[in-house]
Amino acid sequence: MCGIVGFTGCTQAAPVLLDGLRRLEYRGYDSAGVAVFDGERIEMVKASGSVEHLAELTDGGAKLRGTSGIAHTRWATHGAPTDTNAHPHLSENGRFAVIHNGIVENFAALRAELEGEGYVFASETDTEVVAHLLEKYYDGDLKRTVMRTASRLEGSYVLGVLCADEPGRLFCVKEAGPLILGLGVGENYFASDVTALVSRTKNVIYMDDGEFAELTSEHITVFDRTGREITKTVSHVVWDIEAAEKGGYDHFMMKEIMEQPRAVKSTVEPRIRDGKICFEDFDLSRAELESYNKIVITACGSAYHAGMVGKYVIESLCRIPVECELASELRYRDPIIDGHTLLIVVSQSGETADTIAAMRECMGRGAHCLAIVNVVGSTIARLADSVIYTHAGPEIAVATTKGYTTQLAALYLFAVWAAGLLGRIDEARYAGLVSSIRALPSQVQRAIDLNVHVKYLAERWHELKSLFFIGRNIDYAAAMEGSLKLKEISYIHSEAYAAGELKHGTIALIDEKRLVVALCCQEALFDKMVSNIQEVKARGAKVLGLAPEGNRRIFAEADDVLYVPRGEQLFTALPEMIPLQLFAYYIARENGCDIDKPRNLAKSVTVE
Ligand code: G6P
Fold first, then answer.
1. 578 near 594, Cβ under 8 Å?
2. Which of 28, 152, 248, 291 pairs with 259 at a CA distance of 20 to 30 A?
3. In what order do the strands lie in the sheet with 386-389?
4. Under 8 Å between Cβ of 486 and 583
5. Which pLDDT does position 17 carry in this prediction?
6. Residue-wise pLDDT tens digits, 381-418
């Protein structure tokens, strides 16, 4: 969360910084600010509200002269999203400006210390201590000052530093949060995410924790924690800026929903050769795989929901016990994990703080870690023993769509690959499953085409105050994601329940005002779902049923129906999610919600 960007070059910095901020707004959008060095002093504009508001205040950046600067878009942790709490923060003498992503955990002690020395604080943020520490330690050597300052900080801090006494030089520091350097011609950059850089350069350096960098228009120098210069590999970003733009759609979310056939294909196709599944960046022998007595999947949010689907599919095919646990819970347990555990970490961004912490905890106990990640070069991808990249392309909307479905595709590939290697399925079943995986992109397309009327259903139901999603088995795991999708972008209260569990309490909430979305795609459990539908209808609820295409019985049970293309039963969660994403999207649109940037949320949660 929070997006940071820095630029130093020969052209006006502020317009470049604002452009970068616009692309980072998915990380936080409650306030934004920019600071540039104008040749004499630091000029700064910051305000609560969107990056667009900041652009208006600065006339698109034109009002701020200066060719080096830093900028920030905020997701508030310490202090409300006010003008004063917005970043950058200035030192008392105005010679330093600092932007920060993360949480300085010892800020209270540092603040007390600095106040004791006479420093006056303007904001309630943890970040402001950094600005004052920079002033306090500055002795004419900016590198040494940055190192001394960073050595006082505990917690997570990705920092950008601008100093009025060092024209054209920027410093940035990485500790527990994403930071990427961009190499241009006669200009250089840093940012939280490559999306902020690709319109200007595709040559990037992924920073590691404990490293910091000095940028001038001509050079980038990276140092380790001790200040020793280190050599970093320059990577080339393979996608174009169009991938991070709306391309004619009203919202990134709709664009990303529509991209799913292609995104799932990008996950699947490179991994299937001559009818066999193989991973370019991950391999285990049969003996190694047999040495694991369980698999633990950990993740947050939608990635956790993908993990829940993965649990059903992997257990069913591989007959290995699978636990799926929220990373924020796993990290503070004393989990039974050792060298016989295969850990699967799922993350779109590869930067989620809780997921990284849970991963470290489990790897520290000897688990082998396989990461399923979208963002190339992200922290999780680099920490893991092996990686399966989902290759979904950049995902900008805060509510994940293609990020989630490509995670499912990667988990299916893994499950079939492992079941084949372990000899738990015969060749015919293996071949059938592989062709079912290959059929997923066209099933997704069909799910999009089948459900043109989902918009009308959303018009009918958008005034609901509360609803339930129910399902059994894999449909239950899918219900969790369908419910989350709706609540995060439409703010309508929604809960997912295992259909059989409803009668143990939640059914008390069912009345004639309630809509129940019943996921009935597991055909073996269809009759059981019909019983649950009848239970809620008997209490007056309306039912929106999801069933495999061609299932006529659902029309007798549900008030409205969404069809899901038929395919392998184990893989239904993937096409099933398409109408649910569309349903959430259209309801949020009917209700005038800010679909791509829902209130209080951030796409990449890099704080605890
Ligand atoms: C945030 C996002 C969710 C996402 C979760 C995990 O809460 O809003 O959409 O599922 O983080 O993110 P990750 O990048 O680890 O998949």
1. no
2. 28
3. 322-326, 294-299, 341-347, 368-373, 386-389
4. yes
5. 97
6. 999 999 999 999 999 898 999 999 999 999 999 999 99
In terms of Cβ atoms closer than 10 Å to its own Cβ (0-12, 13-18, 19+), residue 595 is: buried
Number of other CB atoms surrounding residue 408 within 10 Å: 29
Residue 474 contacts residue 572 (beta carbons within 8 Å): yes
| Statement: residue 55 has pLDDT above 80 | yes
pLDDT > 90: what percent of the chain?
82
> Cα(521)–Cα(471) distance, rounded to whole angstroms?
9
Give the model's pLDDT for residue 282.
Answer: 80
Q: What is the pLDDT of residues 516-534, one digit of tens each?
A: 999 999 999 999 999 999 9
Distance CA 561, CA 500 (A): 21
- One DSSP character per residue, 416-471 reads HHHHHHTT-S-HHHHHHHHHHHHTHHHHHHHHHHHTTTHHHHHHHHTT-SEEEEEE
Q: What is the pLDDT of residues 56-91, one digit of tens each?
A: 999 999 999 999 999 999 888 778 889 999 999 999
Q: Where are the beta strands (DSSP E) in 196-321?
A: 203-206, 212-215, 220-223, 229-230, 235-236, 272-273, 276-277, 294-299
In angstroms, what is the span from residue 435 Cα to ligand 1's centroid? 30
Kindly tell me the sign of the dihedral angle through the C-alpha atoms of 596, 597, 601, 603: positive
Dist CA 159 CA 103 (whole Å): 11
Closest approach atom of ligand 1 to CA 304: 10
CA distances from 479 to 177, 249, 555 (A): 31, 27, 20
What are the catalytic residues? 2, 603
Provide φ and ψ at 347, rounded to 5°. Answer: -160, 130
| Span from the CA of 275 to the centroid of ligand 1 (angstroms) | 33
Q: Which of 600, 604, 607, 608 to mutate to test the pocket of ligand 1 (most atoms within 8 A of CB)?
A: 604
Rounded to two decimals, the pTM is 0.82
Is residue 358 within 8 Å of residue 330, measured between CB atoms?
Answer: yes
**Which token pair is 136?**
């306090």
Residue 380 CA: nearest ligand 1 atom is 15
Decide if pLDDT at 430 tops 90.
yes
